[in-house]
Amino acid sequence: MILFISGGARSGKSYFAEQTALSLHNKVKGRERSLLYYIATAKKSDDEMVERIRIHQQDRGDVWKTVEEPFDIERILANCNKEDVILLDCLTIWLSNVMFELNYSLEKLEKVIFNLLSLAREKQFHLMIVSNDVNVGIPTSYDSVFTYMYSLQRIHQRIIEQSDIVVEVQAGIPTYWKGAKWL
């Protein structure tokens, strides 16, 4: 299953994703030997980010296998197994990392996303992808920001096409745009 969760900054999307992943993991772990992964894409760029990461890890507890990976998500997913539950948080930060540090083109981005979704289908694990809605508001005059926003929206479209469930979270309230509510 592929689940895409989006929302604005501080909308409650990560909390919703974590609760959904925990619930799904509890359902499948009795049937299969399932692991619960949290793939964190943020980098420890300054003291504030280090503290935010520490608090998030503390809040999640020991049930999660946390993997900090700002670039190579495909390598992590290649090692996941059937019925594992993987929460990728967040696509927006990953995109920033690979676009501005590794100079990924839109073509390369779409290929990587295709590979991630293909891995989820082939290996039959549950992939939950969290991303921000950044296309609301006044259009930007900065080329790099415009390219980033355009690329993010293209990637969102590719993911949504392949997702079983698509949810948008606003003020902690999920709206299901595709697929059935199962929690």
TrEMBL record:
GO molecular function ontology, one term from the record: cobinamide phosphate guanylyltransferase activity
Major enzyme class: transferase
Record-listed E.C. numbers: 2.7.1.156, 2.7.7.62
Binding-site list for GTP: G7, G8, A9, R10, S11, G12, K13, S14, A40, T41, A42, E68, D89
Pathway: Cofactor biosynthesis; adenosylcobalamin biosynthesis; adenosylcobalamin from cob(II)yrinate a,c-diamide: step 5/7; Cofactor biosynthesis; adenosylcobalamin biosynthesis; adenosylcobalamin from cob(II)yrinate a,c-diamide: step 6/7
Keywords: ATP-binding, Cobalamin biosynthesis, GTP-binding, Kinase, Nucleotide-binding, Nucleotidyltransferase, Transferase
Active site: H56
Keyword Transferase among UniProt keywords: yes
Catalytic activity: adenosylcob(III)inamide + GTP = adenosylcob(III)inamide phosphate + GDP + H(+); adenosylcob(III)inamide + ATP = adenosylcob(III)inamide phosphate + ADP + H(+); adenosylcob(III)inamide phosphate + GTP + H(+) = adenosylcob(III)inamide-GDP + diphosphate
Function according to Swiss-Prot or TrEMBL: Catalyzes ATP-dependent phosphorylation of adenosylcobinamide and addition of GMP to adenosylcobinamide phosphate.
Pfam families: CobU
KW Cell membrane (keyword) present: no
InterPro entries: CobU/CobP (IPR003203), P-loop_NTPase (IPR027417)
Name assigned to this protein: Adenosylcobinamide kinase
GO biological process, one term: cobalamin biosynthetic process
Family the UniProt entry places it in: Belongs to the CobU/CobP family.
Taxonomic superkingdom: Bacteria
